[in-house]
Amino acid sequence: MDDVLTRLRAELAANADAKTLSSFRRFFKEDVKCYGVKTGIVGKISTKYWKEITNLPKQKIFDLCEDLLKTDYTEEAFIVSNWVPRLTGKFEAGDLTIFHDWIEKYLNNWAKCDSFCNHTIGNFMDKYPAKVDELEKWAKSSNRWVKRAAAVSLIVPAKEGRFIENVFRISDILLLDKDDLVQKGYGWLLKQASRRHQDEVLRYVVKNKRVMPRTALRYAIELMPMELRSEAMKKE
Questions:
Q1: pLDDT: is 231 or 61 the higher one?
Q2: What does the pLDDT average to over 76-97?
Q3: Most exposed among 37, 143, 213, 232, judged by the fewest C-beta atoms under 10 Å?
């Protein structure tokens, strides 16, 4: 299996095009390293090579994933985000430390962070709900992507109404953060939580609206009816 990543990378390079590369980079404030491969093609390549590695031991797959992350290519990080959730049934409680380290060392834009955390960490928390308090520690990190990860890791469970107390505690920790990408992260989390807990999220926003950054506030109330959005935005 030593040549899997060599062949995978060659296929990514062969499918790169300048137009996609230029379009992709416009979504980011920071410089991003990418081949310029359409998302759909990346998904097909990911699935193709997953079939080759699916029967490997979990740790061997993790090693391949870390190798992909080390290159800093966004498409290779997307492949990791596709592969790792497929291992959810094999997750162990200690894997959260590995995932945290990957986020801290290798995830350096919002697309890498969100695509990895939404399902990998979201799936992990569904399997090990007692570990969800760890995300509150992440929210206190000095690393912007670990802080954003603390919020976006609960996007999928929050959409389904779960972990609502943790949603608010993480939002409390991140409430006054100056980083707009952190603000957007916890605002997005509150928005998804509002699908099942609209009244609670509205109360939270109204209670904090004097100090809550406008970016986070607007994200949090985006799914609410106009009259509730007006209430949340109204200056006192």
A1: 61
A2: 98
A3: 143
- For residues 109 and 64, give the distance between their C-alpha atoms in angstroms, rounded to a whole number: 21
Residue 43 pLDDT greater than 90, yes or no = yes
Confidence grade of residue 2 (pLDDT, cut at 50, 70, 90): low
- How remote is the C-alpha of 203 from its chain's centroid? 26
Placement of tokens 């409680």 in the chain:
93
Tokens 């520690």 found at: 137
Q: Which amino acid is at 48?
A: K
pTM given for the model: 0.95
Distance between CA atoms of residues 209 and 52, nearest Å: 51
Give the residue from 142, 147, 75, 87 showing the smallest Cα distance to 115.
Answer: 75
∠ Cα 93 95 99 (to 5°)? 135
CB neighbours of residue 158 within 10 Å? 28
Other beta carbons within 10 Å of 131: 14
Among candidate residues 33, 51, 39, the one with its CA nearest the CA of residue 15: 39
What domains can be seen in the chain, in order of their start residue?
A: 1-90 (no CATH), 107-236 (1.25.10.90)
1 confidence band (pLDDT: 50, 70, 90): low
